[in-house]
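so im writing up the methods section and need the Mycothiol system anti-sigma-R factor record in one place, dumping it here so i stop losing it
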Amino acid sequence: MSCGNHHDTPCDEVLARVYTYLDGELDQGGCGEVRRHLDECGPCLREYGLEEAVKKLVNKSCGCEPAPEDLRTKVLGRIEQICGEIKTTGSERAETETA
Ligand SMILES: [Zn+2]
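--- predicted struct ---
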């Protein structure tokens, strides 16, 4: 499932990775990967109004500076919401296609 923009990794997967990364489960090795996905999926994130906040957070997390807790919580909540929306739209479309 993707947002209509072309990139190799589906949007919900990008968001899931960003979520895991921001949640602190990805190590430093995941940092570059997440950044690459963000570049790839930038237009979609912009559409969701997430691009600025996520990039700011990832940049801070990739450096030594800890990300601000309130911003992190806000972005994580927003990602959860968007993933839910993507999944809902995706399953509806899949049903239409198989019918
Ligand atoms: Zn996307």
